Amino acid sequence: MVIGDAMWELLSHGRKYPMNRLALSSHVVIIERAGFEVVFVKPIEKENNFKGQLPKVPNVVFTESALVTSGALIQAIKK
Fold first, then answer.
1. What's the angle, vertex CA 52, arms to CA 23 and CA 1, rounded to 5?
2. Which of 1, 41, 50, 56 is the most exposed place for a label (fewest CB within 10 A)?
3. How far apart are CA 58 and CA 26, in angstroms?
4. Are 3 and 54 in contact (CB under 8 A)?
5. What are phi and psi of 5, to 5 degrees?
6. How far apart are CA 76 and CA 18, in angstroms?
7. Closest listed residue to residue 69, CA positions, set 53, 45, 41, 42
C-alpha cells in the first residue's frame, strides 16, 4: 500500500509547512551536492506504525531503516 497525499495531509495535523517526505540518505546527498562534507550522521528512530505502506515520493526508494528514521543530527563542513 502507498501513503497518498490525503494520508500525508492527515498526518501533518494541520501544520502550515509541508511534512518532509525524503529519506535521510536523500538529505545527505543534497548536503554533499551543496559542497559540504558530511562528517557525522546520528539517525533518530521511532517505531514504524505504517508497516507494509510506502510513502509516495517520486524517484525515492525507502529502505526499512529509512521508514523508522524520524529525524537526524547531521554534521557537515564546507569543502
1. 90
2. 1
3. 12
4. yes
5. -60, -40
6. 24
7. 45
Contact between 56 and 4 under an 8 Å Cβ cutoff? The reply is: yes
Residue type, 29: V
- Residue pair 40/75 in contact by the 8 Å Cβ criterion: yes
pLDDT score of 16:
61
Q: Is 71 helix (H, G, I), strand (E, B) or coil?
A: strand
Range of the domain at 48: 2-78
What pLDDT was estimated at residue 15? 67
CB 72 within 8 A of CB 42: yes
Predicted confidence band of residue 79 (pLDDT cuts 50, 70, 90): confident
13-69 pLDDT tens trace:
766 655 566 889 889 999 999 999 999 999 999 887 777 777 766 677 778 788 888
